Amino acid sequence: MNTPLTILIHGLHLNPWYMKPLAKKLEKHGLPTFCYGYKSLSQPIAVNSQRLHEYLLANHNPAQPINLVGHSLGGLVIRHFLAHYPMWQVHRCVTLGTPHRGSQTAHYAHRYLSPLINQSFLGALDGSCPPLREDVSLGIIAGNRPIGLGLPFLTLHSHRHKLDTDARQHDGAVYLSETLLPEAKDYLILPVSHTGLLIDQTVAAQTLHFLQHGCFLH
Questions:
Q1: Whole-number Å distance between alpha carbons of 91 and 68
Q2: Cα dihedral sign for 101, 5, 194, 54?
Q3: Cβ contacts of residue 162 below 8 Å, gap of 6+?
């Protein structure tokens, strides 16, 4: 099989440049990459996944495989894309800190500071993203270093709901429990913050390993 094109998709408030460090590490090991940019605040997830589809129609042969790597909200863009555009030959996918079950941080932001998440909430961060297709090989990497802008919301939520020590684990933006998806082929927790997932060497190495072998190194 030809080497898949690996498409990297950034998260909320970010842009394609944030995925460049990871892309460069993958390219060093022979994986061609493309960092997809989208409007995370002003466009809903359906528009953002449709535009990825349109980019591929214009630039990629449907007979050639692709990998998909998404950070945070980018992982939900992948979920939506997979559900609505099954024509593409998807080899493997990796999500980094993606709130597959919805985001408590986003729920608080939606309630009290809605401009911070705007169009990214409904259909995505609210937990209503389409289910993962059964034929897709997905690996999930989650962080448990609690440093990030979501810390006040998560501290408040943990206190209000009297969460135990395990349930309180998060990466500064997303609870570990929110990153779980039963259909995933493999799951890995690393001592990294939400934004640290983008530049951490171990995250990059594990992402590469999953894309090449369909599993993480445990």
A1: 8
A2: negative
A3: none
Nearest residue to 67 (alpha-carbon basis) of 101, 30, 31, 28? 31
Amino acid at 6: T
Global pTM reads: 0.97
Q: In whole angstroms, how far apart are CA 138 and each of 70, 112, 213? A: 11, 33, 12
- Encoded amino acid at 125, one letter: L
Residue from 79, 25, 71 nearest 174 by CA:
71
Whose structure tokens read 């169009």? 119
Q: Please, which residues have CB within 8 angstroms of residue 138's CB and are 6 or more apart in sequence?
A: 92, 93, 94, 95, 132, 181, 183, 184, 185
Query: In sequence order, what DSSP letters do the residues of 131-143 get, joined into one string?
Result: PPPTT--EEEEEE
> What is the identity of the amino acid at 135?
D
Phi, psi of 144 (to 5 degrees): -130, 25
How confident is the prediction along the chain (218 residues), in pLDDT tens digits per residue? Answer: 589 999 999 999 999 999 999 999 999 999 999 999 999 999 999 999 999 999 999 999 999 999 999 999 999 999 999 999 999 999 999 999 999 999 999 999 998 888 889 999 999 999 999 999 999 999 999 999 999 988 888 988 899 999 898 889 999 999 999 999 999 999 999 999 999 999 999 999 999 999 999 999 98
Nearest to 102 by CA among 78, 123, 80: 123
